[in-house]
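Weekly structure sync, notes
Attendees: PL, DS, HV (note-taker this week)

Item 1: Mechanosensitive ion channel family protein
DS walked through the input record. Source organism listed as Hyphococcus aureus. Sequence as pasted into the shared doc:
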Amino acid sequence: MQDPQPVEEAAAQPPPEPPQDAPADESVIEGGVDTIRERLSDFWDGLQSNMLTVGVAIEAAILLAAVVPAAFFGPRLRKLIQTQIAPRAPYGILRRAANAFAHLATPIALYVVLQIAVIALQTANSSTGLISAAVSLLTAWIVVRLVTLVIRSPFWSRVAFYVIWPVMALDAFGVLDDVVRQLEAFSIPIGSDENGVEQAFSALDLLRTLAVFGVLFWGARFLNHLIQGRINAIDELTVSFKALLSKILDVLLPIVALVAALQIVGFPFATLAIFGGAVGLGIGLGMQRTVSNFFAGFTLIADKSIKPGDVIEIDDSYGWVTAMNARYVTLRTRDGTSHLVPNDKFIEEGVVNWSHDDRVVRLHAPFGVSYDTRDVRGLARAAEERALTVDRVLKTPSPRCNLMEFGDNSINFDLRFWINDPANGSANVRSDVMMAIWDMLHEMGVEVPFPQRDIHIKSAPQGLKITSETKAEAISNSRED
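Item 1 (cont.): predicted structure, written out as C-alpha cells:
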C-alpha cells in the first residue's frame, strides 16, 4: 500500500492557475455541477489525507478499547478510596477531596489508560493527535468536576465551567494560540506614559485582570471572614467598634484586591492621571447617594447613635438592628420581615432608639372612668397593682397611675409602667395591661363612659314653635284615626 502524500508537501505545492478563458472569481453557482463536483472531490481528498489514515484509525480504536480497562479498574479504585483513604482523611476539604476522587474514579482510570497509550504511541513513532485531544478534554472535565465537588462554591463552579473548560478545549484543538493573538490584537488605546510611548489595554489584559481579581477577591473574602471572626471573639471591644472594623474591612480589602490585580497584569496607572480625574468626577456625581450612605454608615457607628442589637423606630418601622452594612442598616421587625433602611435616612430624618443608653423603657396605658366614681385614689392604686400581674411589667421602677384631667365625659387616668425588653414588642405588653385594667373596672363595677350630648332649647323662633306644634297635632290626629 502506497503511503499518502504528506500534508506539508501538498500544502507547499502552488494551486493550479485558472484557465485563461475562465474568470478568476467564478463562483460555485456560476461554475455549475462540474465545479461543485470538483470542490467535493478536493474536500474528500483532504479528509482522506488527514483523517482517514491508518494512524487515526489506530488512535480511534485505542480510544474505544480504553473504556474497557477503565470500566474494570474504576469501581475498584473507588472502593479503595472509600474504604482505605477517605476514612483516614480529616474532616473538611481533605475529606471532600477524597470523596471527590472516589466519585471520579472511573474517569481518572480512563485518563491513566489514555496517558499510557500516548506514551506507547510516542515510543512507536506513531501519531497521537486524536488521543492527546481526548486527554486534554478529559483533563478539563475532571478538573471542573473536582472544583465543584471539593469547594462547593457557586462562584468557583462557574469559573471552572466558563474559564477552565473553554481554555482546555481550545488547547486540545490547537487554536488556543490563535485566540490569544486575536485577543491581543483587539485593544483600546488609553494614552501615553511619561516617555511618550502609546499604551493600550487589550481584551486579553481584561480577561487576565478579571481572572487575577477573582482569585484575589476570593482570598480577600476569606481573609475578611477570618479577621472578623477574630475581632468578634475579643470581648474587650464594643459592638459598635466591631461593626466599624467590619465595615472598613468590607470596603478596603476588595479595593486592595482590584489594585493588586491591575498591578499584576501591568496596567499603566500613569496614563490615567488626566482621564482618571474626569472619570472620577463623573462617577462621584453619579454616585452621590451611594457615597452619602457609605459615609453616613461610618458616622452612625462612630457616634454610637445606633448599633447592632438596638431597638429602634423610624417612620412606620419598629424592630431591632441585626446588621449595619456599607449602604444600609438591616432592621428586623416583629412580623419577621427585614427592612433595609439607607444609612443617610437615619441622619436626615432622625430615629427613635428605644435602647440607646438603657433598655428599660416606659409605656403608657390611658383610660377613663365615669364621674359617678367616688374613690379615684383607690382606683389608681388598684390599676397599679393590676399592671404588676403582667409578666413583662417591671416592679422597679414601679407602675404609676396619674389622674390627668377632668374631661368632658370622663375622669382620665394614665397608667405608666416599665419594661426592659423592647425587642419583644411594646404594643403587645400595652395590650395585656389594658385588658387587665378592663377586667379590673368590671370587677369593681366602675362604669367606662362614652360621649353623650343633651340638647336643651331655651328659646326658639316663632316659626320653629309653630312647626313643632303643627307636627304634634298631626301625630295626634293620625293616632286618633
